[in-house]
Amino acid sequence: MLETKHLRLLQKVAELGSFAAAADALNFTPSAVSQQIASLERDAAARLFERLQGGARLTESGEALLAHAEVILAELAAAEADLEAIGHRRQGRLRFGSFTSATATFAATALERFRELHPAVAVHLFDGEPYESAARLKARELDLAVVFDFDARTVGTAYDGRSVCNHDELEYFDLFEDPFLLVVPSGHPLAARETASLEDLAGETVIGGPPWIDGLAAACADSPRPPRFDFSCRATGFEAFQVLVAAGRGLTLMPRLSLGWQRAGLVALPLEHAPVRHVKAAVPARTHRSPSTEGMLELLQQVVRDLRGDVMVVAVA
Question: Hey, how many other C-beta atoms are within 10 angstroms of the C-beta on 87?
Fold first, then answer.
């Protein structure tokens, strides 16, 4: 019989690529990890890892078992969460995820309203990138999260292209569309325009990184004079790109939700056919939702309706 503790260890070694790294992450000794993996291989009657110089790589049998292990561990986490929600702590905890511009513009407001209405519920906030929240939802470490995706990139796709969560592992509730705006210096010829087009970017340098820059590059692919894309800067916030725009390195884009961080001396204007973030709430699919989760979901939708036309555009009914 395969033990869940061994399956968790299999998952961690596969994730980190070595027994030593897994031992450090789990506060085990390398020999303990090696012994437990050896025990798992005996139970499975198959060699699961190729031992390499400085690392370990899954065999075909290991990859097959890992696929099943991830399903088993996720279902166990879901069962534990469901039992906790149904049991005596039914309304005792809400684990909520968001991303920074959503937290600043509407999610924190919904969270504070929730605290006022349900003071006995312990609320935990995780603010991170949507794909991080997606992975936490999949692992049942979050109950609900505000996330976004793009037309060609799912919520569960990390910015380096890795898939951390399949699209059908989460259930989504549309909130609104968050279009990107073109950011230019106040002295730029486009600064006085009400809107800009992709053709206006001809000859310009656009600074940015994944995930939005991919959509803009695709939109400009058929242009006879596409802009030059500068991928040399990697940043987690749009403030860094704005500093480069202010220094004269080029132009950039930022979503409308991030207007609160607009730098002095820069102008943000609508750009036709710009990338759009589809903002939505997400919960684990096919699991029981606690009253706390349902209540927070309703509050998010209410706050979005209240702010329609302010920081949000094209709010979904």
Answer: 9
What letters, b where the CB count within 10 A reaches 16 and e where it falls short, cover 162-192? eebbeeebbeeeebbbbbbbbbbbeebebbe
Averaged pLDDT for residues 120-146: 93
- How far apart CA 155 and CA 148 sit, in angstroms, is 6
Tell me the backbone φ, ψ of residue 45, rounded to 5 degrees.
55, 40
Would you call the peptide bond into 30 cis, given omega within 30 degrees of 0 as the criterion?
Answer: no
Burial grade of 120 (CB within 10 A; 0-12, 13-18, 19 or more): exposed
DSSP 73-95: HHHHHHHHHHHHHHTTTTTSEEE
> What stretch of H or E contains 183?
strand 170-185
> 119 exposed, middle or buried (CB, 10 Å; 0-12, 13-18, 19+)?
exposed
- Distance CA(283)–CA(134), nearest Å, equals 9
Question: What crossing angle do the helices spanning 30-44 and 19-26 adopt, rounded to 10°?
Answer: 110
Dist. CA 200–CA 206, nearest whole Å? 12
Beta bridge partners of 142: none
Distance CA 263, CA 181 (A): 14
What are the residues facing 291 on neighbouring strands?
none
Rounded to whole angstroms, the Cα distance separating 16 from 66 reads: 13
Name the β-bridge partners of 93. Answer: 122
CA-to-CA distance for 247 and 2, rounded, in angstroms? 59
297/281 Cα distance (integer angstroms): 7
Place of tokens 């809107």: 195
Q: What is the DSSP letter of 150?
A: B
What's the pLDDT at 205? 95
CB 258 within 8 A of CB 279: no
Report the predicted TM-score, pTM, of the whole model to 2 decimal places: 0.73
Q: What is the pLDDT of residue 266?
A: 96
The span from the CA of 187 to the CA of 293, in Å, is 48
